[in-house]
Amino acid sequence: MSKIKVMDEILANKIAAGEVVEKTMNVVKELVENAIDAESDEIKIELIDSGVKEVKVTDNGIGMDRDDATLAFSRHATSKLKNLDDLFNIESLGFRGEALPSIASVSNIELKTSNGKIGTYLTLSGGKNMHVEESDLQQGTTITVKDLFYNTPVRLKYLKNLYVELANITEYINKMALSYPNIKFTLINNDKVLLDTDGKGDLRKVIYQIYGADITKKMIEVTGENDDYYIHGYISYPEMTKSNRSAITTLVNGRVIKNNELNKIITDAYHTYIPKDKFPIIVLNIDVDPILIDINIHPTKMDIKFSKMDTLKDIVFDIVSKELKRLTLIPTISTRTEEALRETTIPLYNAYKKEVPTPKQTYEETVLDFSISEENTTTETTKPEETEALAQEKITPRIKHMIPRGIVYSTYIIAENEDGMYIIDQHAAAERINYEKVLKSLKEKVIPIDLLIPIKIELASNEFLIVKNHLDILKEYGFEAEEFGMNTIIIRSHPNWIFDDIAEECIRKVVDIIISKESFDFDQFVWRMAATMACRMSVKANDYLSYDDQVWLLETLRNCENPFTCPHGRPTIITYTKYDLEKLFKRSLD
């Protein structure tokens, strides 16, 4: 007797539902995507108990006739694919024909639809016992999913609590609203409106409705394109961050996706602008020829493959990093109207003023020697021809010249210029200066310095194997290292930019960096090594700074490529503009 039999269709649909429908958000996602594919410009999502008891989605799309409405709940029935070629040129959000039968198999369904000529009403219970009758002719579709997982109690038991389920649905609808600002989305749970967009196509207004005024004012529009991709959207100022990646919204041809490679490129572009455990707020829509992407790799269709991922990563990194380098990113301590914000934004500084008091060291002098000791604060004479050569290498400062007026708590320098008052963290500022200097030194030819007493480092066997595999990296950056007995390496020289008194500590940190990486990333290694060295070499809070030290620090900071944050993403400088101060002291009442 044969043991292999064709699976019952209801059973097959329940198994498929295990892949397509894991939580209430999946139900909302599939129904909303169908509504968008139906050319709707108004979509209303009504929930009872976060969708566990009921999900109702109403749209004003093209609707269906009686035959299509009944066939829609058959497995692999779809209007979006007709042949194999269509699979490689998908422009709709749905295409497999699995969602509706899968949802119907684990719930009770009511469908009312009309194409303007024929109205149809049908019900289903657990994917069977279909009842069909005529309905009114109001164009569009309303589908109601009740009692989700009522016939699969194990799945119902493992749903998250109602708040988590609602949060997942809200996050998804927010992203769809950002993806389709020309569609009016309304989300309601237990008669409470959670989102209501106007559908007028203004993406910035949708950002405002989701994130609020404060964040919207700190969002910057970006665009970019190459031969394969066109990218447009908004990125946040570094001061506006979230504790997780949920605020990174990436869209491909209007489809919400989650792609780890793409998210990593975006966060890499913010490297040193924000702390490593924080993430920016991003809305990026990527338009691409459908033939260059593969959507059919996951049941939820939220991950896709790009055939030209390298060119995509290049353009995304380029447009984000270039915009951050263009902006003045000093956080302003104030609460103002949008009009006041535009009037008092600190302008980019486009000229190096000759009348500025001469700092005690030029920008290109050794930043690494900055400390509080007298021997390191002695002014060195620079030859005229050297001064001219250095001036040509200087970048255009992104901050206007600031005059120090004092220090509070032995940590924060108070400075001013014609725009307002500035508070500078002396350690964070010195870290940024040293970081850029070390990073530059790492890219140049390194001059090793022999240690009088070599440094031995004992490691665990697994750690030793990792370090041994990367001894060439250490050598390239001026660390002469070799094996020295069982699970031990010996360092005989270090780069010339490391002070002797901190050499061992720095070397051990560099070794830790190599060990901590599961897969060695060359760029990450360089960045982390530079940040580690810079932190150890910089002045700390409570270290005394003379007036000349303060002048030098501020002048050198403003000439950095990114003077606004330390290598770890903390701000180096904040400001009260003149307007803010006058408003605080009631000198300005507007």
Keywords:
8-stranded mixed sheet, elongated, alpha+beta, 23% strand, 20 helices, 590 residues, 5-stranded mixed sheet, single chain
**N-to-C CA distance:** 90 Å
Query: What low-confidence regions span 5 or more consecutive residues with pLDDT below 50?
Result: 14-19, 80-90, 335-393
Binned, the helix content reads: 25-40%
Major sheet: arrangement of strands: 5-4-3-6-2-1-7-8
Oligomer: single chain
Number of helices: 20
Q: In what range is the share of β-strand residues?
A: 15-25%
Would you report the number of β strands?
A: 24
User: Could you report the average pLDDT, rounded to the nearest whole number?
Assistant: 77
| Main pleated-sheet profile | 8 strands, mixed
Q: How big is the Rg?
A: 30 Å
**What would you call the shape?**
elongated
Structure class: alpha+beta
Structure, described:
This protein has 590 residues and is α+β, with helices and mostly antiparallel strands. It is 35% helix and 23% strand. The chain contains 20 helices and 24 strands. The strands form 6 sheets. The chain has an 8-stranded mixed β-sheet with strand order 5-4-3-6-2-1-7-8. Strands 9-10-15-12-13 form a 5-stranded mixed β-sheet, sandwiched between helices. β1 and β2 form a beta hairpin. α1 packs across α5 (99-105), α7 packs antiparallel against α8 and α14 crosses α18 (522-537). The model is unreliable at 14-19, 80-90 and 335-393 (pLDDT under 50).
